[in-house]
Design goal:
The chain is an alpha/beta fold. It has helices at about 55-60, 75-85, 95-105, 110-125, 135-145, 150-165, 170-185, 205-225, 265-270, 270-275, 280-290, 310-315, 320-335, 345-365, 385-400; strands at about 65-70, 90, 185-190, 195-200, 230-235, 250-255, 365-375, 380, 385, 400-410, 425-435. A hairpin with a 2-residue loop joins strand 3 (about 185-190) and strand 4 (about 195-200). It is globular.
């Protein structure tokens, strides 16, 4: 088993530095996305949630040809790293926006002809602006707060142009325009969400298109000189059922699941879901996206209130005394708190769903194969939930061997407010690592 210390890792990253070297970073940066923009392909579309490419590289076998599994693939960080190191990869991700972004990153390197065609369509589209009538009423009401009117019309024109030339199903075209949309928004990202009330300098669509296309062109030119990347397969499905992966076929699993009471990944992508017409209303976001994700925020509780006991029954008995105590305490706090947040209803669903995912990971791993999970603890109304330790205990109960829970960094200190109760012990991000036992 590899250590989580910040030892240097060897790999080739075409487009940035073709030498077989991965820079050394501190342990504190491993569970963050702060280095992604340094690396080819990763920089095409970066997202605030997720670990560093360096973390994945540290866990991968030195010899090539292994199979890596990521049950929460997101924008494809682990899959891209695995490919660049000569490994095969398979991932699961139910979020429709993330799936297309990750597939664009893991597909064959784009030819200059394909890039030129996409760029031409995008530039031509902004010269033929579309009215916001191309959007639903709810989508328009939201997007007009994030863009100048003429900019939004130009971006919609670019979207229409991709459809007209048959590029609407092209994942790279989807990624490029999604990145352009983000760059052209006048709304500052407030922490993780696009906040209409905060402003930033917006790029012009022409400048944004040329910037992102040039990045891809640079990376693709270098990739053309390298050995073809191994296969990466991404399934748009929940990892609670990974039966598409053969039992005992995976050499290593590397992932970072949603954190309790942290990011609402449906809300975080609201701008793009509306722009692309993936969802046309808040209800469609809830039913079409949020309902398919692991339950980790109170916004995801629709339909879950009456089946808490069913979730509880799926959790290992060794965890239940402490989880029951937490749920009881949260229920009592809700009765006296002004916001009356239903934090007590998150605990059983989250750990039940994570139990199913980890059982599937165990099934997929070969004997001796390692699982690496980056996850954080949480605090509701000042009540601490030791998520990493609970998951480590669950893995031990399943039969995983050599289970360890290693703290990587403190987190949450920037968000301490007088009106918000934090954990008396502080919060952190952890590396939970374990091996599949030979008898599991």
């Amino acid at each position: 088993m590899k250590s989580t210390s910040s030892s240097a890792v060897q790999m080739s990253l075409p487009g940035i530095d073709n030498r077989p070297r991965f820079a050394e970073i501190s342990r504190q940066r491993l569970p963050t996305n702060t280095t992604a923009n340094r690396h080819a392909i990763h920089r095409w579309f970066n997202f605030i949630a997720g670990f560093a490419p360096e973390f994945v590289a540290q866990q991968c076998p030195k010899s090539t040809g292994a199979l890596l599994l990521d049950p929460f693939a997101g924008c494809g960080t682990s899959l891209v790293v695995a490919q660049s190191l000569g490994h095969r990869a398979v991932g699961f991700e139910p979020h429709p926006f993330f799936v297309r972004i990750a597939r664009a990153k893991t597909e064959a390197s784009p030819t200059s002809t394909r890039l030129h065609r996409i760029e031409g369509a995008l530039l031509g589209g902004i010269e033929a602006p579309e009215k916001a009538a191309a959007l639903t009423e709810s989508a328009e009401a939201f997007l007009v707060k994030l863009f100048e009117e003429h900019t939004l019309r130009q971006l919609l024109g670019a979207r229409a142009a991709l459809e007209e030339v048959g590029l609407d199903e092209d994942n790279l075209a989807f990624l490029l325009l999604s990145r352009v949309v983000d760059m052209c928004s006048k709304a500052q990202t407030d922490g993780i969400y696009k906040a209409p009330t905060t402003a930033k300098k917006a790029d012009s669509p022409v400048d944004a298109i040329r910037t992102v296309v040039e990045q891809v062109r640079c990376d693709a030119a270098q990739a053309d000189q390298a050995v073809a990347s191994p296969t990466a397969v991404l399934h748009q499905a929940s990892s609670e059922d990974m039966s598409l992966v053969e039992t005992g076929s995976v050499d290593i699993a590397v992932t970072s699941p949603p954190y309790l009471n942290n990011f609402d990944f449906a809300e975080m992508t609201r701008m793009h879901l509306y722009f692309w017409g993936i969802c046309g209303s808040w209800r469609e976001i809830t039913e079409g996206v949020r309902a398919k994700l692991v339950i980790n925020t109170t916004t995801a509780l629709a339909g879950q209130r009456d089946i808490q006991s069913q979730y509880r029954d799926r959790i290992a008995g060794a965890l239940l005394p402490e989880l029951d105590s937490i749920v009881t305490a949260l229920r009592s706090e809700r009765r006296v708190r002004a916001g009356k947040k239903e934090y007590d209803l998150l605990v059983y669903p989250y750990f039940a769903q994570m139990t199913r995912v980890l059982l599937e990971v165990q099934r997929c791993l070969a004997a001796g194969g390692a699982a690496h999970v980056v996850v954080a603890d949480a605090a509701f109304y000042g009540i601490h939930v030791s998520t990493p330790q609970f998951l480590a205990s669950a893995m031990s109960a399943m039969g995983f061997a050599n289970v360890q829970c290693i703290k990587l960094r403190d987190r949450g200190h920037r968000w301490i407010l007088d009106k918000r109760d934090g954990s008396p012990t502080g919060l952190g991000e952890y590396h939970v690592v374990a091996k599949r036992g030979t008898s599991a």
